[in-house]
Please model this.
Amino acid sequence: MGYGVPSRQTVNVVGGRARARDVTLGARLWTLDGKCSVQTSVMEVSAAKAREVVDVVTDHTTFSVAPDALLGTPDGWVHARDAAGTVLAWTPARKWRRERLTIRPGRQFGYFLGATCADGTVGKNYVSLVVNDEEFAARYAAALTAATGLAARLEPVTRPSGYLGRDLPGFRVRVVSSYLADLLRQYVGGDAHHLRQSFPRVVLREREVFEGFLDGYVDGDGCRVRRWPARVVVSANVPFLAEIAKVVGARFTPRTDGKVSRLVLADSWPARGTFRTERHPLELTESAWAEVHEVRFRAVPDKPFTLYDFRLEPHPTFPVNGHLVRQEW
Model:
């Protein structure tokens, strides 16, 4: 038998990790469908003896499989014995265990994203907003919950004021979700810092989403213009404002003295006909690539390895230490 996983090698099951020999009929395993995580079920388990396995050494770990096991690469499936020098589809094993969210598009999703881009903080495993305006914080919490399903609530906090030289009362909305934090980084180009974030083109899926985005961004970093029906937003992130200006068909002249720039958003911008919908995924891309540095053959002369093979449905693949493997039946 040229396929299979050694008995002690761990695989990524739903809920954690398990040794191959402990995976039973009906167990659910994680896998990738394109770039997104999905689940697949074990319909049959078989075991066979083998005298040789290979240890595949990647950027992140070393895992063992049969020499003929198929590994996922950008160019298709390759046998493990021939994988040296390639890159493999990979997801950090710890991230398989986290709760996945179903994003609900609409105005509330746009508002949540706009307010986060303006005034929010995206940490390693959390998203938060700290502001002085209780009504703004309440709108943000409602939008976050409507868009993600996560329970969000207001917490009274204090914020230091350098201008006044004392602490001021404020309100914080904070949710812990590494999935949501990674998703927001994906939307804004990988870096969620306000001065480096990119315009999240996912808000161009629908005009309703984009209008919600503008509402949230103005609430965070803007205000209404008193003299005519318009709003103004300010930011030192010039490329970010320039992209918004293109969508609304507005003139934008950034400042060149290092101070924040201003973009005026006329209430009549929809009549210009400059908005164009674009198709962008809402789901998190969870697949990455890991380079294979070495493939080491390991043989035993006396006691053979026990290799376990799984027939899976609806997807025939599963991760071994986060690396995508395909079994043959």
Observations:
- The longest strand covers residues 36-50.
- The chain has five helices and 21 strands.
